[in-house]
Automatic annotation (TrEMBL):
Family: Belongs to the HIBADH-related family.
Gene3D superfamilies xref list: N-(1-d-carboxylethyl)-l-norvaline Dehydrogenase, domain 2 (1.10.1040.10), NAD(P)-binding Rossmann-like Domain (3.40.50.720)
Record's protein name: 2-(Hydroxymethyl)glutarate dehydrogenase
Molecular-function annotations in GO: 2-hydroxymethylglutarate dehydrogenase activity; NAD binding; NADP binding
Keyword annotations of the record: NAD, Oxidoreductase
3-hydroxyisobutyrate dehydrogenase-like NAD-binding domain: residues covered: 167-284
SUPFAM superfamilies in UniProt: 6-phosphogluconate dehydrogenase C-terminal domain-like (SSF48179), NAD(P)-binding Rossmann-fold domains (SSF51735)
Active site as annotated: 171
Domain 6-phosphogluconate dehydrogenase NADP-binding positions: 2-162
Length: 286
């Protein structure tokens, strides 16, 4: 089986390397040549591609790209890769996109006789590198069964969500909750400072209450250390909460709390923190 991979950044790179470590034949493409070289260094079964078109003959193609627009321009239309892939192949997207874009991709792939799986991811680059990345898979059950073994190589556990709509909606909702929690945690940290409570003690005690959270454990220590190295950047966090709010609007639901949190990530981006970790929202809340 020949596997193509487009997008070898913080998330895509680790997943592609997991395939190479497992001895799978991988054709890897990224606009950044250094990303390709780092991915190929994981083993001996990967080769670099000069363009996305070089992946047309693959049995399975992954994309891991920042924005819905990037995916559409790469995959859709008569010049897109889906128009060049062979019937019976499978296209797997692991990006975070909106359900409407997912539906567009799925329908276009079906017209070309190609299976589609939307498989957004649940954690960060460190977990992805160790194949400990939760995968939320959505698509036709027969397509899922066809690629389940491949998915279990790049991440674990793999959850079948039903349709692609459900998979992407869950991922957006998860990030809406997580990023809103991070903004509230930042607010709590600022209040504890004004109360004269030691930050390390505050976080230790908070973990023993109903206010405990994943963001407290993952990003609370980063706040204390002033560590804003990009793990999941402000720009990507903002993109995800924006897509989530737009998803709610499209369904007649006003995600008011998330929209308020989004305004702070917008301020962080405007302040020049877009390429810093999303914990940089802490610097905005004062």
């Amino acid at each position: 089986m020949k596997i193509g991979y487009i997008g070898l950044g913080l998330m895509g790179g680790p997943l592609a390397r997991n395939l190479i470590r497992a001895g799978k034949e991988v054709i890897a493409f990224d606009l950044n040549k250094e990303h390709i070289e780092r991915t190929l260094a994981a083993g001996t079964t990967g080769v670099g591609a000069n363009s996305a078109d070089d992946l047309a003959d693959c049995d399975v193609v992954f994309t891991s790209l920042p924005m819905p627009a990037h995916i559409k321009s790469t995959m859709l239309g008569e010049n897109g890769l889906l128009s060049k892939m062979k019937p019976g192949s499978v296209y797997i997207d692991v990006s975070t996109i909106d359900p409407q874009t997912a539906e567009e991709l799925e329908n276009f792939a079906a017209q070309k006789g190609i299976g589609f799986m939307g498989c957004p991811l649940g954690k960060g680059p460190a977990q992805a590198e160790k194949a400990e990345q939760p995968i939320f898979a959505g698509g036709k059950k027969e397509t899922f069964e066809k690629v389940k073994e491949i998915l279990e190589i790049v991440g674990s556990p793999v959850y079948y969500m039903g349709g692609a709509k459900q998979a992407y909606a869950f991922k957006l909702i998860s990030n809406m909750v997580g990023m809103t929690d991070l903004a509230v945690l930042s607010e709590g940290m600022r209040l504890c400072e004004k109360a004269g409570i030691d930050g390390e003690l505050f976080q230790k005690l908070l973990a023993d209450t109903g206010a405990d959270s994943a963001q407290l454990h993952m990003r609370g220590p980063l706040m204390l250390a002033g560590d804003y190295a990009n793990r999941f950047g402000v720009k990507l966090a903002l993109k995800d909460v924006r897509l989530g709010c737009e998803m709610g609007d499209a369904w007649g639901f006003d995600a008011a709390f998330t929209k308020l949190a989004k305004s702070y990530f917008e301020k962080a981006d405007e302040a020049g923190y877009g390429m810093e970790d999303c914990v940089a929202v802490y610097k905005i809340i004062k």
